[in-house]
Amino acid sequence: MIGKLKHKLTKTREGWLGKVTAVVKSQPDIDEDFFDSLEEVLIAGDLGVNFVMDLMDNVRATVEELGIKKSENILRILKTGMLRALTQDLQANDNVAAGEKKPLVIMVVGVNGTGKTTTIGKLAALFKEEEKKVLLAAADTFRAAASDQLEIWADRASVDIIRNQPGADPASVAFDALQAAVSRGVDVLIVDTAGRLHTKSNLMEELKKIRRVLGKLIPDAPHETLLIMDATTGQNGLSQAKQFTEAVGVTGIVLTKLDGTAKGGIVFSITKELGIPVKYIGLGEKIDDLEVFNPDEFVEALFQ
Ligand SMILES: Nc1nc2c(ncn2[C@@H]2O[C@H](COP(=O)(O)OP(=O)(O)O)[C@@H](O)[C@H]2O)c(=O)[nH]1
Ligand SMILES: [Mg+2]
């Protein structure tokens, strides 16, 4: 597991950890210059200014407290600080647990191209592995190709799908799918949604309507609303994310495309800026390229 993660995070690790290591080598003594250089490479590494400020406070305090003089000790301190940042202030990082609710209803939201449909396919496969009965709802009816794409993933994961004509009311597709999920004894219903409509405010209204309609059949549905974020957009993804979290009550983030980007440090600013846990990470385009996010393993893989 760590091996794969380590491999997939190569670019992120090389992007800033390599630079931290270089700073440590060229500035063996911890002084103000060293702290400045360290702060600079962390900010350049897409960790987010606010996160880096907090982290630096934490690092300075630890250095002082322990009387550390040599910069070679800094990686260990950074690692501890980063792990703490990912786990503090968040409730237990409970992952979507099928079984407590039946059907467990997961709504998937996010900007076009972030990886919603792909992630749904991968999630379906994960639940199938747990021997859950899965149903997909193609409520992205805005683009004609979207339902076809979801159907391909449904086939790959060997799960059923409820779809309608392009242009059909997304909320009615979601409603039909939830009815089908109840009558077929489905364990997990995953609802795909559009990432773009004619205007952004329409999209948010549409997503709210889907939520309301689901809640009419099962009052606490959707039980989980996953926002899909593309790691390659770095800090820019955060303002988009805020729009979704304000409008539709996001309960967890899935950070996709962590393979092949140097911007994986975005994980830290997501946690800091949104206060919503990252629950899964996407590490590629294949069906098994999705992992439950584990902060310990993630930080371990980053520093190896
Ligand atoms: N490398 C990589 N590509 C991904 C990942 N997740 C999705 N993609 C790709 O991103 C593109 C958009 O994905 P899609 O699921 O259609 O996004 P949607 O518009 O949000 O539904 C596709 O080419 C996917 O193969 C990932 O974790 N890693
Ligand atoms: Mg899609």
Structural description of this entry:
The protein is of the alpha/beta class and 304 residues long. The protein folds into two domains: 2-87, Up-down Bundle (Four Helix Bundle (Hemerythrin (Met), subunit A)); 104-303, P-loop containing nucleotide triphosphate hydrolases (Rossmann fold). Helix content is 53%, strand content 13%. It has twelve helices and eight strands. The chain has helices spanning 2-8, 10-26, 32-44, 49-66, 74-87, 116-129, 144-157, 170-183, 200-217, 236-248, 266-274, 295-303; strands at residues 104-109, 134-139, 160-162, 188-193, 224-230, 252-256, 278-282, 290-292. It is elongated. The mean pLDDT is 91. Bound molecules: guanosine-5'-diphosphate and magnesium ion. The site of magnesium ion has 4 residues, from α6.
